[in-house]
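Q: I'm building a small set of examples for a reading group on sequence design. Run inverse folding on the following structure and report the sequence directly after it, with nothing in between.
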């Protein structure tokens, strides 16, 4: 598994984009305000030093992990079909919102 190898074996931070249009009405654990702010793709920074509690094995169709939004930790379940991009290393992809002052 690519994420397991990057995050845990290689201790590489990753960026992923999750397309909420592919959630198909599933309760994913994302706050509504995050889904509304990024309707075409939710950018996520995954840091192996943060307690992600990454679960890649319980459900082969879902990536389960802890994510923090404005200091609130959410247990998210992301269908693999909704993962639009995986990039290794924090310098490998830039988010448009990183240059803005406000973030959801």
């Amino acid at each position: 598994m690519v994420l397991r190898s990057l995050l845990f074996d290689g201790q590489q931070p990753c960026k992923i984009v999750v397309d909420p249009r592919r959630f198909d009405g599933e309760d994913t654990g994302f706050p509504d305000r995050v889904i509304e702010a990024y309707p075409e793709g939710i950018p996520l920074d995954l840091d192996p030093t943060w307690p992600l509690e990454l679960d890649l094995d319980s459900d082969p169709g879902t990536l389960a992990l802890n994510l923090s939004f404005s200091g609130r930790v959410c247990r998210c379940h992301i269908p693999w079909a909704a993962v639009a991009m995986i990039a290794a290393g924090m310098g490998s992809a830039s988010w448009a919102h990183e240059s803005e002052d406000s973030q959801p």
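The two ends are 30 Å apart (CA to CA).
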